[in-house]
Amino acid sequence: MADHVDRVVQQWGAERPDLDVSPMEVIGRLKRLTRLVDAELKRTFAEHDLDAASFDVLATLRRSGPPYRLTPTGLLQSSMVTSGAISQRLDRLEARGLVTRTPSGSDGRSRDVALTPEGQALIDRALPDHLATEHRVLAGLDEPQTEALVEALRTLLVHLGDTSARGPAPE
Amino acid sequence: MADHVDRVVQQWGAERPDLDVSPMEVIGRLKRLTRLVDAELKRTFAEHDLDAASFDVLATLRRSGPPYRLTPTGLLQSSMVTSGAISQRLDRLEARGLVTRTPSGSDGRSRDVALTPEGQALIDRALPDHLATEHRVLAGLDEPQTEALVEALRTLLVHLGDTSARGPAPE
DNA sequence: CCAATGTATCTCAGTACTAAGACAACTGGG
DNA sequence: CCCAGTTGTCTTAGTACTGAGATACATTGG
């Protein structure tokens, strides 16, 4: 079964047979798949009055464990956005009463961002639905294929330096 | 070698051992990898005074073959954005003299979008550099891994319906 | 102890997008 | 032939982001 990228590659083969467009087989598909998956996930988030950005912050706080508290820098390092984006995400979540921002005890520059009970309840409610959606999106893949996919993706990520906490862009 | 997603999955395992977070192994990596790859590609585009959106339009016209002409709907179907985004992309490219918009002969509602010689020269100049960057990003993968990756991605894309020309979101 | 440098957070202008809908031009069944 | 419904393109308001830089606090070497 051919997908969109197969047609793109075939078109390039006809127009620019001098070029090796094989990397598009991977990168073109990554781009399209991520976009389709994002659209799927978005619907589940919306059912819980969330979007991907808010879910990302709440989930990062939740999985950090009690007391569900991180600094903006901690959130920044898990995310792949700029510090400005984190500030704005926190503004929105704070306005909704899902997180609080308090001065950090030890470092006067920093703040502690913590899940409120409402924030924790929301993420705990949304998470199972989110995982069900993720499962459904991957249902077309069998176990060996999934494992091969995970290994290939991890290899590429490590190759690109995604091994420890880092900001939005590679240097 | 562990990547960022390995740590995320491990955290969830400690906090919510009741949930199966294994789909994150795939989807979390897709998201992060796409973002890292996009950042790499962006630098190459910038060297040619392009961004991903402009490159996408010019490349779609270029690979469609002579006379390098498509309607906005044709461009829309290859892209994964809304019609409003296509209009705006074309505004920018037209202002730079890289494409022209002329009334379509057969259908009074439509326009013909065509590459100018400058547009064609630009995409033909940028394309080899772009492919070199894509190659470099994938350099960590050997041949069998790449093939397994491509097969898994295509399976997922077909599963999500990415088989023919379509708009920005699945229904 | 202080000055220089580094770090944590936030602000703000600019950008490209989406969602919704306007509008004109097509199409097909009666 | 006509008109109801559809299609192709564009417009606009609103959104979340980036990039640049401001500010305040912390750290370090002399």
Automatic annotation (TrEMBL), chains A, B:
This is MarR family winged helix-turn-helix transcriptional regulator. Gene3D superfamilies: Winged helix-like DNA-binding domain superfamily/Winged helix DNA-binding domain (1.10.10.10). Residues 23-158 form the HTH marR-type domain. Keywords: DNA-binding, Transcription, Transcription regulation. It comes from the Bacteria. SUPFAM superfamilies: Winged helix' DNA-binding domain.
